[in-house]
């Protein structure tokens, strides 16, 4: 298990920051809570957590002047970043959640409301199985059932080249993506017990070799 | 395929986890952190932490107890009790909650649901509904820890809460709370059929078989219980084994798998084994109810 990494966790007022901090600290990391652009450079990797609404998330990222610094760190300097749930969705070009919003456009794709219904009730809440479409360092050692906790009503439609794993919920839902140094998860590894912690540990291992 | 969630409801009173009987009597269990650690180890899918002191005494949420519980929790945690405004929601989320639960506050001012959902997203807002059966046989939503009648019909209030932005409904039968009589299945069905968001059944589980009935007969999306998890060692594992034997798709973490083992009528595991050292096969209830 990797430890002693410095992980920058972006605080843009969106949801369960503490859960993410707890998980990384459990893995032996030192966490830096970044509210300003210059704080993004203080660690080995960046985590963009997020529970909330897309438009509000982008508004706060703008308001805190985080978008320019995020682009410099992730796109120009190639720093490893992991987006979780809404933190992955804001990496897309746009979303139609409560109006039309532009995202960070790191991934070619858009976020849209899932179809849902009486059987597949929305939000899609609970533990669901991954179908891994492309093996990646994130899944190392995760044998057997890869079941993780999801909680969302919107999902990412993106370039198939980004997709690492999907899940099924009345439709095929993109569950994990990668574009070079950029990783995104629709589910919550910080709340997915041992499997989730193992996956975060794999991200740390990857970040350690960059 | 989505697994059916088994949720443990921890009732917090004066900073301690307690058993609640009919919203009237309370028996102490212990510190939040210890209860959370056990439930995690046994493979619970989610934890709901309800601070009843905050509700009844109109206090702000106990962020210290929430942080203590959240620190050892690696499954989603929903926190309720005493949430009066968006600042309380923020305090609860900052302490380690993933979702929050509102009950009396939402009843007093339903627009609060919309206000909170706009910031934290619909998927973070759980509206908790406490229901009593009226003497004429109908159902009525009650507020303030079961003390105040509202005149509201549970299905109608659930529909309104969802229209205003609730992402899940936590449905609790006050009459069944602590009764061990099983869920009020008619009530669960009534509300499950009224909305398109997940409905969590709570109140009355006395045998693990009640969890199966909540899903099958009540139509609940997820099943929650409080006291039963405190009675037995490995209770979560046993509960899931019963659900799995009934054909419900539950998540069973690799740590302990009990499928194929027999249970007695009280839901106790009968450990049947042939041990060379101990001689002949024997049946033994390893978990007493």
Mind explaining what this structure looks like?
The complex is a heterodimer of chains A (210) and B (289). With 210 residues, chain A is α/β, with parallel strands linked by helices. Chain A has a single domain (6-209), classed as Rossmann fold, CATH 3.40.50. In chain A, 24% of the residues lie in helices and 30% in strands. In chain A, strands 2-1-3-4-14-13-12-9 form an 8-stranded mixed sheet. A 4-stranded mixed sheet of chain A has the order 6-5-7-11, covered by helices on one side. In chain A, a hairpin with a 2-residue loop joins strand 13 (172-179) and strand 14. The longest helix of chain A is centred in the C-terminal third of the chain and has 16 residues, at 193-208. Chain A is globular, with a radius of gyration of 16 Å. In chain A, 55% of the residues are buried. With 289 residues, chain B is of the alpha/beta class. Chain B has a single domain (5-260), classed as TIM Barrel (Alpha-Beta Barrel). Chain B has 11 helices and 12 strands. Chain B has an 8-stranded parallel barrel, surrounded by 7 helices. In chain B, helix 1 (32-41) packs parallel to helix 3 (63-71). In chain B, 55% of the residues are buried. The chains are: A alpha/beta (210), B alpha/beta (289). The interface between A and B is large, with 43 and 42 residues.
Number of domains of chain A: 1
Lateral arrangement of strands in the main beta sheet of chain A: 2-1-3-4-14-13-12-9
Outline the biggest β-sheet of chain A.
8 strands, mixed
Net shape of chain B: globular
Helical segment count of chain A: 5
Note poorly predicted spans of chain A: none
The coarse silhouette of chain A is globular
Query: How many strands of chain A?
Result: 14
Summarize the biggest pleated sheet of chain B.
Answer: 8 strands, parallel, barrel
CATH architecture of chain B: Alpha-Beta Barrel
**Helix proportion range of chain A:** 10-25%
* H/E element sequence of chain A: EHEEHHEHEEEEEEEEEEH
Identify the most extensive interface between protein chains.
A-B, 43 and 42 residues
CATH superfamily of chain A: Class I glutamine amidotransferase (GATase) domain
Radius of gyration of chain B: 19 Å
**What is the CATH domain class of chain B?**
Alpha Beta
CATH topology of chain B: TIM Barrel
CATH class of chain A: Alpha Beta
The helix/strand class of chain B is alpha/beta
């Amino acid at each position: 298990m990797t430890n002693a990494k410095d992980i920058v966790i972006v605080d843009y007022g969106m949801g369960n920051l503490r859960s993410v901090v707890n998980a990384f600290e459990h893995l032996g990391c030192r966490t830096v809570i970044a509210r300003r652009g210059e704080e993004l450079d203080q660690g080995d990797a960046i985590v963009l957590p997020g529970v909330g609404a897309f438009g509000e998330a982008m508004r706060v990222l703008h308001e805190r002047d985080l978008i320019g610094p995020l682009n410099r760190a992730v796109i120009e300097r190639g720093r490893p970043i992991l987006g979780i749930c809404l933190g992955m969705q804001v990496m897309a070009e746009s979303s139609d959640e409560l109006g039309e919003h532009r995202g960070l456009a790191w991934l070619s794709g858009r976020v849209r409301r899932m179809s849902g219904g009486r059987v597949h009730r929305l939000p899609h809440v609970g533990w669901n199985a991954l179908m891994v479409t492309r093996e990646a360092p994130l899944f190392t050692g995760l044998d057997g059932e890869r079941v993780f906790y999801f909680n969302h009503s919107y999902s990412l439609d993106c370039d198939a080249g980004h997709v690492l794993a999907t899940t099924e919920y009345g439709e095929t839902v993109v569950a994990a993506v990668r574009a070079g140094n950029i990783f995104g998860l629709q589910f919550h590894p910080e709340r997915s017990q041992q499997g989730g912690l193992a996956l975060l540990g794999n991200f740390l291992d990857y970040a350690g070799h960059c | 395929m989505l697994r059916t969630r088994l949720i443990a409801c921890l009732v917090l009173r004066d900073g301690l986890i307690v058993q609640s009987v009919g919203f009237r009597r309370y028996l102490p269990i212990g510190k939040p952190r210890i209860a959370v650690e056990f439930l995690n180890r046994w493979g619970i899918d989610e934890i709901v932490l309800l601070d009843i002191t905050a509700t009844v005494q109109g206090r702000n949420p106990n962020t210290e107890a929430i942080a203590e519980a959240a620190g050892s929790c690696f499954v989603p945690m929903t926190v309720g009790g005493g949430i009066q405004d968006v600042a309380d929601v923020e305090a609860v989320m900052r302490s380690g909650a993933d979702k929050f639960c509102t009950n009396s506050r939402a009843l007093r001012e339903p627009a609060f649901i919309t206000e909170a959902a706009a910031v934290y997203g619909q998927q973070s807002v759980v509206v908790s509904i406490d229901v009593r059966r009226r003497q004429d046989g109908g159902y009525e939503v009650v507020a303030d820890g079961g003390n105040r009648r509202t005149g509201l019909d549970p299905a109608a209030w659930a529909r309104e809460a969802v229209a205003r932005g609730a992402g899940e409904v936590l449905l609790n039968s006050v009459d069944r709370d602590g009764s061990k009589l099983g869920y009020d299945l008619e009530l669960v069905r009534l509300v499950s059929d009224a909305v398109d968001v997940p409905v969590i059944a709570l109140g009355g589980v006395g045998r693990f078989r009640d969890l199966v009935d909540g899903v099958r007969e009540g139509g609940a999306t997820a099943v929650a219980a409080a006291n039963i998890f405190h009675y037995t060692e490995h209770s979560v594992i046993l509960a899931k084994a019963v659900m799995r034997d009934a054909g419900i798709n539950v998540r069973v973490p690799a740590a302990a798998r009990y499928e194929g083992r027999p249970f007695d009528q009280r839901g106790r595991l009968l450990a049947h084994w042939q041990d060379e050292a101990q001689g002949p096969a024997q049946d033994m209830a390893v978990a007493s109810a």
